[in-house]
């Protein structure tokens, strides 16, 4: 079940060492600690909230506290600290009084919701006054939501760019879901993170080669098949035919996959020769014969993307002919398309599409593949994701808790009980308990070990949809 992924399935060990000592550090008679998670800003002005459900199901839901796990933690921490700091009594209390379920309440904005930064996204509080120390114990694993959130956000901002160019240069946006293909599996830090990041990308698109994303979507979002791919060559399946055999290798691709899409990497030796003489002459008849039953997707994989894409399109246009679409941009016949899977990122996308547009080519003709930039080139600071305590009850008295470092005002935290409210279509975080719980956009998703809301992937995708109307009208 992949439980050994983190080297443990003992949630008592899924935390930072210092937290093991925190039960002794709160004021005497603390009964409630309430904390919240936010993106304080960063690269993108809004974030797609996504991935908390994975963490809850993977680590916190169910009877996660057992006698054996308490014993294992007690032994390991005695060795790790060289002294007895472990809260054995506190964990035994959870085992005995809560039957191993975690006495916490987590409220969150629905998965897939796009929220401007500096707003509360989820809150955590203890439901048993004896377990005030538990709220922040799980900050560590809950804050890992930064990763799926940041992948989903970065992916969605690329979808907006592609949608914009499609609305300007294509007959429709129908092809949008397939326009950014996940090439990132191998560039991820682990199989587990590739599944998490891969499914985060699929909130916005349906093209992926990251198979771990399919299994993660099945297991954690109830989605039977969250993404799709097509038969495609890699350099080894071309270069093993030898440089003289490249034509045979290409012909073999056409014959092995006579209908549907087939992608063929064509830069092994000389992409200009491959497009001009091989695809454009020696194999031209077999390419044309595919008609609208089988599309050849030509894939460069080197060179300056904006220049390569346009040069390849110009060659293919000369060899196979072009037509103009309803927006007045050039199209190739239906049996020819391109995918650019090298050097693709949020930063490079617009330059490539702008270059195509300037040369009169429709965005309809090109899909993108993205790897490291899609799933790995980000960290918790990209969207400044943080978890802070905002409220406590001590000696029965409510206290608004905050930090406000004179050395960084950007790190000032929110105070008191928080609600996320929709005021005239805009999200607003209301602090200090001044909000109206009935208007809170955050809903209880976890309570006392039970998952109270299980989002389907359709729901998540619906929540995250980009505003296409705006795109259509801006063409
Ligand atoms: O190059 C790659 O690097 C690693 C990930 C997969 C991959 C290519 N796949 C592909 C899929 C559909 C159309 C074209 C290529």
What does this structure look like?
- By secondary structure, this protein is of the alpha+beta class.
- The protein has helices spanning 52-60, 67-81, 88-98, 139-142, 146-169, 191-201, 211-221, 235-239, 246-256, 271-282, 284-289, 305-320, 346-358, 372-375, 457-464, 468-473; strands spanning 30-39, 46-48, 104-108, 114-116, 120-126, 180-182, 262-265, 296-299, 323-324, 330-331, 336-340, 366-370, 385-394, 397-400, 419-423, 426-430, 443-447, 450-451.
- A hairpin with a 5-residue loop joins strand 9 and strand 10 (330-331).
- Helix 12 runs parallel beside helix 13.
- It is elongated.
Shape: elongated
Radius of gyration: 26 Å
SS field, number of helical segments: 16
Give the helix proportion (percent range): 25-40%
What small molecules accompany the polymer chains? (3E)-3-[(phenylamino)methylidene]oxan-2-one
Topology:
Blueprint: E1 30-39, E2 46-48, H1 52-60, H2 67-81, H3 88-98, E3 104-108, E4 114-116, E5 120-126, H4 139-142, H5 146-169, E6 180-182, H6 191-201, H7 211-221, H8 235-239, H9 246-256, E7 262-265, H10 271-282, H11 284-289, E8 296-299, H12 305-320, E9 323-324, E10 330-331, E11 336-340, H13 346-358, E12 366-370, H14 372-375, E13 385-394, E14 397-400, E15 419-423, E16 426-430, E17 443-447, E18 450-451, H15 457-464, H16 468-473
Parallel strand pairs: 6-12, 7-8, 8-11, 11-12
Antiparallel strand pairs: 1-5, 1-13, 2-4, 3-5, 3-17, 9-10, 13-14, 15-16, 17-18
Bound molecules: (3E)-3-[(phenylamino)methylidene]oxan-2-one (AOY).
Residues 181, 183, 209, 229-230, 232, 263, 299, 339, 341, 369 line the site of (3E)-3-[(phenylamino)methylidene]oxan-2-one (AOY).
